[in-house]
Amino acid sequence: MPDANRLGEFLRASRARVDPKDVGLPRGGDRRVPGLRREELAVLAGVSADYYARLEQGRERNPSAQLLDAIGRALHLDPDARRHLFQLAGLHPRLGPDNSRESVHPALLRLLEAFPTAAAYVLSPAFEVLATNSVAAALLSPFTGPTNMVRVLFQHPQARTVFPDWPSLTENVVHALQLNAGRFPDDPHIRALVADLRRDSPAFRTLWADQTVRGLTRMFKVINHPEAGQVQLTYQTFDVRDAPGQQLLVGTPEPGSAEALAALAAADRVIAAQPPAGGQPSEGAFDRPAGRREP
C-alpha cells in the first residue's frame, strides 16, 4: 500500500466491501468490480462525485470531519474502521450521541457473573451504572436512589462515610468525567450531569474548574460497608470496544476482605429472594443490571 495515498486505498477497499443491496441498490447492471461505484457512494454520502473521486485518488488532502462522518456512514464502517478513517485523514472523530453506549451486550452481562469473588460492574460515559454482578450490587447496597456514581459521590449523604478516601476518589472520577466530556461533547447525559453538579456541588465545581484530564486505570479503594465492615479492593478498568465509552470495572478484594465480601453478597442474595408483604422480591438501586440492554 503506497504511503502517499493510504486514505484512498482504504476508501477503495471499504467501498468494494459494501453490497449494493444493503444500501437499496440493485446488484445487477454493468458492475465490473464488487461493491459500490464511486458515483453511488458520493450520492449516499451527499458529496459531489468529482470531489469524492479526487479524495480517493489523493488529489484532495483536507476533508472535513463532517464529510468523513458522512462517508463513514455510507460505507457502514464500525467504530474501529471509522476511527482509522479519521486517523488516515489526520483528524480525530468526535463521538456524538449513540444509544449503544447505554446498552449492555448480553455477552458482557454473562461475563459479569464470571467474577464470583470480585465486584464487577459496567459504567456508561456519564458514569451511570448500567449493570452489576451480585457482589457489586451488595457492595453498593448502602446507596439507594441514584444509580449514577458521580451523583452518589457528590450528593448521597452516606458517600463520605462509605468511602473514607473520598477526596482522592472524587478527584479521579471527575478527571475521568472530564475526559469523557471531551470524547463525547454532545452526550446529553454528561451535559446534564455536569450542569447539575456545577450548580449544586461546590466540591464538584472546584474539581471541574481544574480541567485535569485522566482516565480511570488501576486504583485501590477502601469501602466502609455498614454490614460487612471495611472492605479493601484493587480495581482494574477495561474499555468495552464494541460500545465506545463504556467501561468494565472489576474490583478484586485484598487479602482479609474476600471472606467479608463473599458473606455480604450471599446475604444480599438471600434478602433479595425473600418477597416482602406485597409478594414481590425486594429490589434496590444496584440489585440488578440497569439501563437498556440488547436483546
UniProtKB/TrEMBL annotation:
Boundaries of every HTH cro/C1-type domain copy? 35-82
- Judging by the UniProt lineage, the source's domain of life is Bacteria
Q: Mark out the compositionally biased spans (Basic and acidic residues).
A: 285-295
Under SMART domains, the record lists:
HTH_XRE
Disordered as annotated region, ranges:
272-295
InterPro entries recorded for this chain? Cro/C1-type_HTH, Lambda_DNA-bd_dom_sf, MLTR_LBD
Name of the protein: Transcriptional regulator
MF GO annotations? DNA binding
